[in-house]
Design a protein that fits this description.
- It contains six helices and five strands.
- It has a five-stranded parallel β-sheet, sandwiched between helices.
- By secondary structure, it is α/β, with parallel strands linked by helices.
- The structure holds 4'-phosphopantetheine.
Length: about 180
Amino acid sequence: MSVDKPDSNVDRRAVYPGTFDPPTLGHLDVVRRAVRLFPQVIIGVFPNPKKAPLFSVRERVALLRSATADLPHVTVKAFDGLLVDFVRREKAQAILRGIRAVSDMEYEFQMAMANRNLSGIETLFLMPGEAYTYVTATLVKEVARHGGDVSGMVPQAVLAHLKKRMAAPPRQSSSR
Ligand code: PNS
């Protein structure tokens, strides 16, 4: 293992990637923790058609921009292709992921190892506040779909958008 010291002149940046369908208060809690550690945080939104997202990638980017509007050192971008290529293009030094429970670890460990073997880029894990450990984007959609109250799980902008989407789902042809 290399013992090289990081270049102190480098503007440290981290990429926080995800599907964010939709962004939750748990995601935002992780972003707020990340900006205390890194001068620049780039939220990378992956379209992830495999997961058949409820919101288009454009909508997810817009929702995250609105939810992080008070954080000047956070930028939100969509990316396609390999995460490590996006991290390199953004000249970032680390990948950030949130871990809610030990059960998240198997999937996260596999991704972190694959990304490190592909590129040498390390993944750092942050734990969201305890209040959000049960919050997942899947749970939010499930509760909202059945008319439940998700106001304690998502930012205001997402809440309004979710209500609209549940009332009138988009046609199949909309871009994802
Ligand atoms: O919020 P998610 O769905 O858990 O995020 C998963 C994501 C987007 C981080 C992951 O699927 C990803 O990095 N996709 C980009 C394609 C890629 O690099 N895949 C290999 C990862 S080991």
